[in-house]
Specification:
- There is one protein chain.
- The chain is an alpha/beta fold and 262 residues long.
- It folds into two domains: 80 residues, no CATH class; 121 residues, OB fold (Dihydrolipoamide Acetyltransferase, E2P) (Beta Barrel), CATH 2.40.50.
- The protein is built from five helices and eight strands.
- A five-stranded mixed beta barrel has the order 2-4-5-8-6.
- Helix 1 packs antiparallel against helix 4.
- InterPro entries: Surf1/Shy1, Surf1/Surf4.
- It is found in: Cell membrane; Membrane.
- This is SURF1-like protein.
Length: 262
């Protein structure tokens, strides 16, 4: 086999190895999703409790608290309200209104009051429902702070942001905030009817298993193709390598005998 053929074979083998590793990665993600789903199911079934009993004094709402129902009583600070832009529900664009709810001890939690669908091509909501005055009790689902990688979408700018991030909001608003937020399930007094509620969590295995099967199939195809073309291009014996066939002895020439008789 020549160098080109060996190089191509090694490339195919490398491709198969990469496909196998990608399949294993998808299976790893599947296991992570299953574990996360178990936490979500457990949190959905848990009874409502005061937020400080769920999160603790550190004030960090983590993945282990996602979708847990918390109860917070306090007063909304409308002067620190933030409008979340470029949001959508079921592919419907709109805005979310996040308002800090300040407890008696001064610590506040960011409350996502609901979703306002965008009307036409508006860049800001035409009307934002006012917050209730006085003491408010909110029962809602906890969520960890949103993160956008290298973007700074969680830092409020001129009363707007793209992500809900407790530490980033705290720096700009100058408040003692929980690291995370909550969405309203129930509120006393009632939340404004203009707000649309949020859908629940997706509790399924997702596409990871089938993605893994696809990657493993690609690996088999690559190796199968290598075997096939190896057999198709098997070198044949060269003519010079074949044993020479014996040549028949030359027949006697009658002319030679005739010459001898003469």
């Amino acid at each position: 086999m020549n160098v080109r053929w060996i190089t191509a074979a090694l490339a195919v083998i490398l491709l198969a190895v990469v496909c196998v590793e990608l399949g294993r990665w998808q299976l790893h993600r599947l296991e992570e999703r299953k574990a996360r789903n178990e936490v979500t199911r457990s949190n959905l079934a848990a009874a409502p409790a005061p937020i400080d009993q769920i999160v603790g004094p550190q004030g960090l709402i983590g993945d282990q608290h996602a979708w847990r129902t918390a109860v917070v009583t306090g007063r909304y600070d409308a002067s620190k309200q933030i409008i979340l832009k470029y949001r959508n529900i079921a592919d419907r664009p709109g805005f979310e209104i996040v308002t800090p709810l300040v407890q008696a001890d001064g610590k506040a939690v960011l409350v996502d009051r609901g979703f306002l669908p965008r009307q036409s091509s508006e860049l800001m909501p035409l009307h934002v429902p006012a917050v209730p005055t006085g003491e408010v009790t909110v029962t809602g689902r906890l969520q960890r702070s949103e993160r956008g990688g290298s973007t700074n979408g969680g830092v409020p700018d001129d009363g707007t942001a793209r992500l809900i991030n407790g530490p980033d909001f705290a720096k700009v608003l100058g408040m003692d905030l929980y690291d995370g937020y909550m969405t309203i399930s129930q509120q006393q007094p009632a939340n404004d009817a203009s707000f649309l509620s949020f859908p629940g969590p997706e509790i399924d295995d997702g596409p990871h298993f089938f993605y893994a099967l696809q990657w493993f199939f690609f690996a088999l195809m690559a190796l199968g193709g290598l075997v096939y073309f190896t057999r198709q291009n098997k070198p044949e014996d060269k003519p010079e390598d074949k044993p020479a066939e014996p040549q028949p002895e030359a027949a006697e020439r009658p002319e030679a005998h005739a010459a001898v008789r003469d």
